[in-house]
Amino acid sequence: MIADKLKPYQRDAAERIASEQAMLLADQPGLGKTFTSLGALELSGVLTEGSTTLILGPLITCDTAWVPTIQSFMPEVNVIDGF
Fold first, then answer.
1. Dmax over Cα atoms in the chain, in whole Å?
2. CA-to-CA distance for 26 and 53, rounded, in angstroms?
3. Is residue 24 within 8 Å of residue 55, measured between CB atoms?
4. Cα separation, 39 vs 19, whole angstroms
5. Measuring CA to CA, which residue among 39, 80, 42, 44 is closest to residue 62?
6. Is the torsion defined by CA of 43, 66, 55, 30 positive or negative?
7. What angle do CA 58, 59, 65 make, to 5 degrees?
8. 18-30: per-residue pLDDT in tens?
9. How far apart are the first and last CA of the chain?
């Protein structure tokens, strides 16, 4: 889904996050932190068909980054906005 679409630097970060299972991703704005994070979740086996994943974040970040990214690149995923 996502991991195949990552840019090389995003793929490197996603693989490292997936292997370490914890990491601070503090890239500059616009470099794809949301996309990289979704790739890391996929590579770590968290995002699999039939699974449920809870992503918590500030409301503005969910509305402007997480939900649009998931809906654009993972249309088969059901997003439930808790607010």
1. 34
2. 22
3. no
4. 12
5. 80
6. positive
7. 85
8. 999 888 889 888 8
9. 27
Q: What pTM does this model have?
A: 0.84
Nearest 5°: CA angle at 31, between 29 and 36?
120
Residue 27 tokens, joined: 């890239």
Tokens of 21: 């299972």
> What would the two tokens of residue 31 be?
């470099």
| DSSP symbol at 21 | S
Whole-angstrom Cα distance, residue 71 to residue 53?
A: 15
Nearest to 61 by CA among 18, 14, 29, 24: 29
